[in-house]
Amino acid sequence: MRLTVDGREIEIDPDPEMPLLWALRDLAGITGPKFGCGIAACGACTVLVDGVPVRSCSLPVGGVEGDIVTIEGLADGDTLSAVQQAWLDEQVAQCGYCQAGQIMSATALLDEVSDPTDEDIDNAMGGNLCRCGTYPRIRAAIKRAAAMKLARA
Amino acid sequence: MASIGKIARRTFLIGAAAIAGGVAVGYWYVSRPYDNPLEDDLAEGEATFNPFVKIASDNIVTVIAPRAEMGQGISTTLAAFVAEELGVPLEELTVEHGPTSFAYYNGTMMEESGPFPWFDDSLLASIARDAFSTVGKVLGLQATGGSASTRDGFERMRQAGAAARHMLLAAAADRFDVPAGQLETVGRTVVHKASGKSATFGELAVDAAKMSPPSSVKLKDKADWTLLGKPQKRVDMLAKVTGAPIFGVDVMLPDMLFGTVKMNPVFWQKPASVDLSKAEAVKGVVKIVPLDTTYGHGFGVIAENTWAAFRAADLIEADWGKPDFPADGAAVNEALNAALATDGSRLRDDGDVDVAFADAPADSVLEAEYAVPFLAHICMEPMNATARFKDGKLELWAPNQMPTLVEYLSGAAIGLESANVTAHTTSLGGGFGRREADTTIYAAIMAKEVEGRPVKVIWSREEDVRHDSYRPAAKGRFRARLNQDGLPAALDMRIAAPSVVASVMRRTFPSLSPAGPDGTITQGSHDQPYTIADYRVSGAKADLGVPVGFWRSVGNSFNGFFHEGFMDEIATKGGLDPVEMRRKLMAAHPAAVKVVDKVAEMANWGEPLPAGRGKGFAFTLSFGSWVGEIVQVAETDAGIRVEKVWIAADVGTAIDPGIIEAQLTSGAIFGLSAAMGQEITFANGMVEQSNFHDFDAMRIHQCPEFEVAILENYHRMGGVGEIGTPPAAPALANAIFALTGKRIRALPLSREVSFA
Ligand code: FES
Ligand code: FES
After folding, report:
1. Which residues fall within 8 angstroms of residue B354, CB to CB, at 6 or more apart?
2. How far is Cα A19 from Cα A10, in angstroms, rounded to an integer?
3. How far apart are CA B487 and CA B101, in angstroms?
4. d(Cα B667, Cα B672) in Å, to the nearest integer?
5. Contact between B730 and B617 (Cβ < 8 Å)
6. Residue in A with minimal Cα distance to B304
């Protein structure tokens, strides 16, 4: 089957029941999305399908239609997306393992709400676990990214 | 010579208990530096100056930061040590973990293994610290733990940078025929201003490496530091915001197979019978192999992809056998009670506690019983390792915290000497003390079954939760005798817990039985800077059979709760303000008092709070750092909300305040997560929890605001990665007492109250 991932067409031959996460990681070699739980409880595997954040560990690849964007497809060449840049500026990551998922969820949030409140952030990010406890900086980075995007627009 | 090292390495591994026999090693051996492992693997035109620095002809300057980067920022801090003295901006360096080598031994991790508290500056304590540091060096134990990496690298890595700079300048002086004193550096170039001559480090590297290293180097004074003491941009941040393949699970090798494990949910048992037919029928399964190891028994599933391996593992049917250890909560409790009835060993015994209580009026005595459950680590990156066995050699790629030991144990599991094993350490998606050698042992056995092809073995989250090296369950019985003035005249703490050291030894070196007390049982209670005339802390080992291990802050993680919860009770009974009481009891330790004062001032301690709010205080000295925390909670319709946390920490010398702030916050969230809701429980000898739905950690909407102050009053440098954890649970429990009047003495708190 064909998938469009980060603007590229990829050709893979998975069991249609295989979760998108493992099709991306094991078959297509796209390791940006991470495995954390396999039951849609941690958000490490979050990717965007047509702009909607989904937990790729719990989505059979056979049912996926639309453009997939992973953490690897956010930057434009060497130019980071506003969210990535804000993450860098705020020095958010510790171990970094959850951050691909965090950044994808934040990206989707800011595409929806340009100037999110704390409550918006809580609602959009509650499904993304960070075992290192980087939440204070995640919150700051989302606000910084929102400001950057408004300034860029 | 080699044989002493070998014997020492085999025989004496973990902590004081294991070393009790003592080993005579001459100074000639101890002071002999290990070979530079970088020499084996240099590119054309590349030169190495010491195990920490190499420079290539294209002017790439590589710094080896040989400690596991698990989020604590150690790669940045170690590289900054070199950068400061080499005189090169941090962002111009390439930073790598580097190879596995005894040259990267951690001498500091074991330094505090003797029976002396951190604040003991006596000659005897210093001699013991030197001796234990020497043991780390002789063993060549390359390990990340004990919040020791920054302290360990502080001298060595600055010297490495200074020595390399000295040699580069010497080579340039020869080449330009000018005195070295007239040279300066701009980035990675040596410049002679007067003549306009210059050469890059890369151009000088080969000649420079032939220069003899200086016999001694003068390191910069603290006042002259340009990088150290200031927040740096982390060297790993860009990779982490772009999804770069840096973790163990991201390893991709040609012709690679994928796999997972299904270990016996009843620890240590061999399955009585097994039916693999359904599992083997799953499409994509290559082979299912038995795993019989000192870590446990079970099966490794090798497949074409991870998902096939997961499904097959789920379909393994077995009679897993019966536990030979306390099989449920009631049995665990009974075993802890039995241990509490024994004397245990006393790592603190000031005055005469028995006499102090003998004539105590009943109303002057306070008694309480505390308990904490087993806990899992749940590193965000599940356990995993990749292995390839080919031509009698084993190659491993794994997020791990002790690569020299990983090489030894994983090789031994398939009959290989360490010399035939190479371990590559990837970035760790969290470590917290969990990353032991089980992952690489299993991967090695599996790889041997498909000789020539690498196998990447990723555990499901369910396996990860059910086969952890748990934070021990523990229980304590405490009593205090109060004076007329409300202060404690006597304090008697008795604590029972499984021995972490004994459990680790059972898995790693089962033929050795550790002797002597395990200080981790009372660590955080016996070594606190309180002065109480009659003060006794006893620790009793309770063998619960469950594998236990190092969990961020180890014994401090529960002793902090025990000691500081009970201190709060003493203050209440004595009618004293808990902060004021600490000031009095810690008066002999100015660094501690300053921490208490600072955090109290930040939190405006003592201000009248509106109804529905409460604050709690706690203090723990751990890993050489003095930490006070205040937690504020509020009653809301949805339950108790943790609103704000103030932290003051004296770390002696603060190398990177940005990273320290992140670690203090992280450590506190780790402790709060556990205190609020985590517990691992057992039924029929099997762990009942399995994934984040029943063993979760704090989420963003529960996360309080943080305010952090970093102090530098104490004269020795402390650790950073674990110190935020111990005071978090008691400060929260004490805040809940202030809010509700309910004294909760058993964790998790969610058994008694609900959180928003
Ligand atoms: S791995 Fe998909 S939500 Fe956890
Ligand atoms: S940064 Fe480690 S889990 Fe989030």
Report:
1. none
2. 16
3. 52
4. 9
5. no
6. A26
Which CATH architecture group holds B33-106+141-240?
A: 2-Layer Sandwich (3.30)
CB B625 within 8 A of CB B651: yes
Q: How far apart are CA B714 and CA B706, in angstroms?
A: 24
CATH code of B248-322+383-458, in short, is 3.30.365.10
| Nearest ligand by distance to the CA of A103 | 2
Of A73, A95, A110, which marks where a domain is finished?
Answer: A73
Ligand 2 centre from B121 Cα, in Å?
38
Across all residues in chain A, what is the average pLDDT?
97
Q: B329-375+470-751 — its CATH code?
A: 3.30.365.10
Contact A38 B461 (CB under 8 A): yes
What local confidence, expressed as pLDDT, does residue B322 receive? 94
The pLDDT of residue B6: 35
Query: Do residues A100 and A132 make contact, with C-beta atoms less than 8 angstroms apart?
Result: no
Q: Which residue of A has its CA nearest to B254?
A: A29
How far apart (Å, rounded) are the C-alpha atoms in residues A138 and B480?
Answer: 44
| Per-domain residue ranges of chain B | 33-106+141-240, 248-322+383-458, 329-375+470-751
10 Å CB burial of residue A115 (0-12, 13-18, 19+) is: exposed
CA–centroid distance for B705 within its chain: 25
Residue reference for tokens 């802390």 = B537
Beta-bridge partners for B274: B318
Cα(B666)–Cα(B673) distance, rounded to whole angstroms? 10
- Which protein residue's CA is at the shortest distance from atom 4 of ligand 2? A130
Cα dist. B539→B475, B561, B677 in Å?
A: 10, 15, 26
B661, B700, B702, B755: which to substitute to probe chain A, counting the most A Cβ within 10 Å?
Answer: B700
- Residue B137's pLDDT is what? 67
A-chain CB neighbours of B460 within 8 Å are: 38
Range of the domain at A140: 82-152
| Ligand located closest to B692 CA | 1
**pLDDT value of residue A9:** 96
Judge if the beta carbon of residue B290 lies within 6 A of ligand 2. Answer: no
B240/A130 CB distance under 8 A: no
Distance from the alpha carbon of residue A107 to the mean position of ligand 2, in angstroms: 17
The tens place of each residue's pLDDT in chain A, 153 residues long, gives 999 999 999 999 999 999 999 999 999 999 999 999 999 999 999 999 999 999 999 999 999 999 999 999 999 999 999 999 999 999 999 999 999 999 999 999 999 999 999 999 999 999 999 999 999 999 999 999 999 999 987
Ligand 2: which of A130, A135, A138 to mutate, judged by most atoms within 8 Å of the beta carbon? A130
Among residues A73, A106, A122, which one ends one of the domains? A73
Does the beta carbon of A44 sit less than 6 angstroms from any atom of ligand 1?
yes
Give residue-wise pLDDT tens across range B525-546. 999 999 999 999 999 999 999 9
- Ranges of residues in chain B with a pLDDT under 50 are 1-31
B223: CB partners within 8 A, 6+ apart: none
Cα(B301) to centroid of ligand 2, in Å? Answer: 28
**Residues 6 or more apart in contact with residue B367 via CB below 8 angstroms:** B477, B478, B479
A70 CB within 8 Å of a chain B CB: yes
What pTM did the predictor assign?
A: 0.94
Contact B282, B306 (CB under 8 A): no
State the smallest CA–CA distance between residue A14 and chain B in angstroms.
10
The number of the ligand 2 atom at minimal distance from the alpha carbon of A133 is 4
